[in-house]
Amino acid sequence: MPSYKELLAQKAKLEEQLEAVRVKELEQIIAHVKQAISDYGLTAEDIGLASKGKAKAKRTVAPKYRDPKTGATWTGRGRAPAWIAGKNYERFSIA
């Protein structure tokens, strides 16, 4: 039966061989993939590496309330501005 040190040496040798074979095979695979991309005119979107289309755009919301004194508006979303907070919103309604 081999000793612990002998087995460790074998392991190190096998790991070196594994890495050498991996690098060699990767070179071949990368060349094959590049050729396929070139042959078929593929893009990053086609193979799922980039998003298709545009990102969702934020929609702007029309204002629902207007301050008659300053002309400032508020959509009704988020925290109410000081000019309308605690007051009857109907007074400031645009439509």
TrEMBL record:
Q: What protein does this entry describe?
A: H-NS histone family protein
Q: What family does this chain come from, according to its entry?
A: Belongs to the histone-like protein H-NS family.
Q: What is the lineage of its organism?
A: Bacteria, Pseudomonadati, Pseudomonadota, Betaproteobacteria, Burkholderiales
> Where mainly located?
cytoplasm
Q: Which Gene3D superfamilies match?
A: Histone-like nucleoid-structuring protein H-NS (3.30.160.510)
Assigned keywords, A-Z: Cytoplasm, DNA-binding
Instruction: Please report the organism this UniProt entry assigns to the protein.
Output: Ralstonia soli
InterPro entries in UniProt: H-NS_C_dom
Where is the protein localized? Cytoplasm, Nucleoid
Domain DNA-binding protein H-NS-like C-terminal residues, every copy: 55-94
